[in-house]
Amino acid sequence: MSVTLTEDAAKHVQNFLSKRGKGIGLRVGVRTSGCSGMAYKLEFVDEPDEADLKFVSNGVTILVDQQSLPYIAGMELDYTREGLNEGFKFNNPNVKDQCGCGESFKV
Question: How are beta strands 60-64 and 25-33 bridged, if at all?
Answer without folding.
Answer: parallel
